[in-house]
């Protein structure tokens, strides 16, 4: 029988700015799940990164189950009450609808669900990122499941030599495409390099996989908060689940993409490019320029519906270099102030004063009489 891992996350208020969750709020979410989840879920784990509270649940009810989604929704509601009483900043930030209506998707929280046939040993890693967007997973997920320089298992392990299938979403047009690697590698990269538009939603094994044919082995939250709310409500800080070992990336292959820092969009006011920094769970507080953007990783095994772990995977000296590199990159790019490419292009900024500035300046704008300037403008795409 299939088992489902549901990871649902939301920002329901933080202290003092978008810095860190408030413990009594986390406790309220935990208490709600403990007291109301017994008949629905076989185990759960509550965690957090930055200002985002994360609920990992195990159950037999399948993905998109209304009762599971409602349990998480109500837990976040219970936490929001505590956040409001404490006067927390952004209390209930990601709960965009008043009443639950059957599926938590499109209501604000981020959702990643894996419906699996558990193996004898079922190890997996939950990644949590704050101050960035779902496309921040494109690069590491590609590396884990598509790049033999990151994952030598693709070359030397006969059980994964056939490659993997990637489900990519065009989040602007609501379309998806399945790409098969290694055959479609260049086409996949052509899409997912545009990480604000095309995002990897899931990875599947192929039908020819010798150990685990046609199984979902990775999933990322792709919820677009700003689309749902129609206005700035904070960027959609993502989370993901990756199954590992025996025909899948080894634990170390699933961590290797984070050994060097890379640039992601988000950071201050959701409007800047900045380096992602792998951190242990006790270092997940967003400070410098509301960041730098961070990723934490929790290693679990699942047996008979019970979770064992987590192991705090980046809480290790092996990632000190990536942290130092991220801090150096932060120092470098921060000097650029509001100039691109530190600041995001207009269309990707989570909020901007530009329309109001343009309106104010409209009477002062004059036509350029210089003919050269006009013909140059025609050369634009
Ligand atoms: P051990 O020899 O420590 O079990 O490790 C095997 C392995 O495949 C590591 O990636
Ligand atoms: P969050 O998306 O984590 O709430 O952060 C928003 C923000 O504006 C940070 O400066
Ligand atoms: Mg916030
Ligand atoms: Mg956040
Ligand atoms: Mg955010």
TrEMBL record:
UniProt-recorded Gene Ontology molecular function terms: fructose 1,6-bisphosphate 1-phosphatase activity; fructose-bisphosphate aldolase activity; magnesium ion binding
Residue positions binding Mg(2+) 2: 51-52, 130, 237
Coiled-coil parts of chain: none
Reactions listed under catalytic activity: beta-D-fructose 1,6-bisphosphate + H2O = beta-D-fructose 6-phosphate + phosphate; beta-D-fructose 1,6-bisphosphate = D-glyceraldehyde 3-phosphate + dihydroxyacetone phosphate
Residues where Mg(2+) 1 binds: 11, 18, 51, 93
Keyword Lyase: yes
InterPro entries referenced in this protein's UniProt entry, alphabetically: FBPase_V, FBPase_V_sf
Active site: 11 (proton acceptor), 232 (proton donor/acceptor), 235 (schiff-base intermediate with dhap)
Binding site for dihydroxyacetone phosphate: 18, 131, 269, 290
UniProt record, GO biological process: gluconeogenesis
SUPFAM superfamilies named among the record's database cross-references: Sulfolobus fructose-1,6-bisphosphatase-like
Cofactor(s) required for function per UniProt: Mg(2+)
Binding-site list for beta-D-fructose 1,6-bisphosphate: 18, 89, 102-103, 131, 245-246, 269, 290, 351
Residues annotated as binding Mg(2+) 3: 235-237
Domain of life: Archaea
Signal sequence, start to end: none
Residue positions binding Mg(2+) 4: 236
Family note: Belongs to the FBP aldolase/phosphatase family.
Assembly, per entry: Homooctamer; dimer of tetramers.
Record's comment describing the protein's domains: Consists of a single catalytic domain, but remodels its active-site architecture via a large structural change to exhibit dual activities.
Role summary: Catalyzes two subsequent steps in gluconeogenesis: the aldol condensation of dihydroxyacetone phosphate (DHAP) and glyceraldehyde-3-phosphate (GA3P) to fructose-1,6-bisphosphate (FBP), and the dephosphorylation of FBP to fructose-6-phosphate (F6P).
PANTHER family: FRUCTOSE-1,6-BISPHOSPHATE ALDOLASE/PHOSPHATASE (PTHR38341), FRUCTOSE-1,6-BISPHOSPHATE ALDOLASE_PHOSPHATASE (PTHR38341:SF1)
HAMAP family per record: FBP_aldolase_phosphatase
Protein name according to UniProt: Fructose-1,6-bisphosphate aldolase/phosphatase
Designated gene of the protein: fbp
């Amino acid at each position: 029988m299939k088992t489902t891992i549901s990871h649902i996350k939301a920002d329901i208020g933080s202290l003092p700015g978008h810095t860190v969750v408030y413990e009594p709020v986390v406790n309220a979410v935990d208490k709600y799940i403990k007291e109301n989840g017994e008949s629905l879920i076989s185990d759960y784990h509550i965690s957090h990164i930055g200002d985002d509270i994360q609920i990992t649940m195990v159950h037999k009810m399948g993905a998109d189950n209304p009762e599971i989604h409602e349990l998480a929704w109500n837990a976040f509601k219970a936490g929001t009450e505590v956040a409001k009483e404490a006067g927390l900043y952004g209390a209930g930030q990601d709960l965009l609808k008043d009443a639950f209506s059957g599926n938590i998707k499109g209501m604000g929280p981020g959702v990643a669900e894996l419906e699996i046939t558990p193996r004898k040993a079922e190890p997996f890693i939950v990644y949590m990122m704050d101050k960035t967007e779902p496309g921040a997973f494109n690069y590491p997920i590609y590396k884990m499941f598509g790049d033999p320089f990151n994952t030598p298992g693709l070359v030397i392990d006969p059980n994964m030599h056939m490659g993997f299938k990637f489900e990519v979403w065009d989040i602007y047009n609501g379309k998806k495409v399945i790409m098969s690697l290694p055959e479609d590698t260049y086409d996949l990269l052509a899409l997912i390099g545009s990480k604000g538009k095309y995002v990897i939603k899931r990875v599947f094994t192929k039908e020819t996989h010798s150990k685990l044919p046609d199984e979902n082995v990775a999933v990322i939250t792709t919820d677009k908060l700003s689309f749902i709310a129609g206005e700035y409500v904070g960027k959609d800080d993502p989370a993901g689940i990756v199954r590992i070992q025996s025909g899948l990336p080894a634990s170390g292959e699933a961590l290797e993409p984070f050994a060097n820092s890379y640039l992601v969009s988000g950071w201050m006011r959701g409007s800047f490019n900045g380096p992602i920094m792998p951190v242990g769970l006790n270092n997940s507080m967003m400070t410098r320029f509301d960041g730098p953007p961070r990723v934490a990783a929790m290693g679990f095994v699942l047996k008979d519906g019970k979770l064992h772990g987590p192991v705090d995977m980046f809480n290790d000296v092996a990632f000190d270099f990536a942290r130092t590199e991220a801090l150096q990159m932060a120092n470098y790019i921060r000097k650029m102030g509001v100039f691109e490419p530190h600041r995001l292009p207009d269309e990707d900024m989570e909020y901007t004063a530009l329309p109001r500035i343009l309106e104010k300046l409209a009477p002062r704008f004059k036509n350029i009489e210089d003919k050269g300037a006009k013909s140059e403008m025609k050369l634009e795409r």
